[in-house]
Design a protein that fits this description.
about 180 residues, mainly beta, 2 domains, four-stranded parallel sheet, 1 helix
């Protein structure tokens, strides 16, 4: 429906619906009463089934989803980033400049052993809004610089969109130089 597209070897069947500007491609499958809409992307070997809802700017790749990701942040993190949650915390990554400054704001520095925090982050489901952005290491592959590792409390997460976590604060726990 609308501008939605299903392409490649992707399949949509049963009572499943894809609409809005959503895209389903690769070997992805959407079935049952699942809904994929908004600007959502389902691709790779992802499976969306049952009563699952994938919406907003959520991106799924190589996972199985049966929940409404806008209402289940743990599943949204797992499906969009591949990261696990242990004791209500997530270990995630991002790349920064070699001097540990942010690519987006070179006056903002990350320090190992300290909590990085954004003052007055935007509390919304926008992906690229104020806040700290983290994901898995592969998400940041196109950036130069160094990887930092962070521990994020689940309660500090603002949203999960486009395969990344946007949060209020994070404990910086390590550096990985390529």
């Amino acid at each position: 429906y609308g501008n939605a597209k299903v392409s490649g070897d992707a399949r949509v069947y049963g009572n499943a619906r894809v609409y809005g500007n959503a895209r389903v491609y690769g070997n992805a499958k959407v079935s049952g009463d699942a809904r994929v809409y908004g600007n959502a992307r389902v691709h790779g070997n992802a499976r969306v089934y049952g009563n699952a809802m994938v919406s907003q700017n959520q991106h799924l790749q190589n996972c199985s989803c049966k929940d409404d990701l806008s209402k289940n942040i743990k599943e949204s993190i797992r499906c969009q980033t591949g990261l696990g949650i242990f004791n209500e915390k997530i270990v995630a990554y991002k790349t920064v400049n070699k001097d540990m400054s942010s690519f987006q704001d070179e006056k903002f520095f990350y320090k190992v052993g300290e909590i990085a925090e954004v003052k007055n982050p935007e509390i919304s489901n926008e992906s690229c809004a104020s806040g700290l952005h983290f994901s898995n290491m592969n998400y940041w592959d196109d950036k130069d610089g160094v990887f930092i590792q962070a521990e994020i409390n689940l309660e500090d997460i603002i949203t999960v969109q486009e395969g990344k976590i946007r949060c209020k604060k994070a404990l910086i726990t390590g550096i990985y130089e390529r």
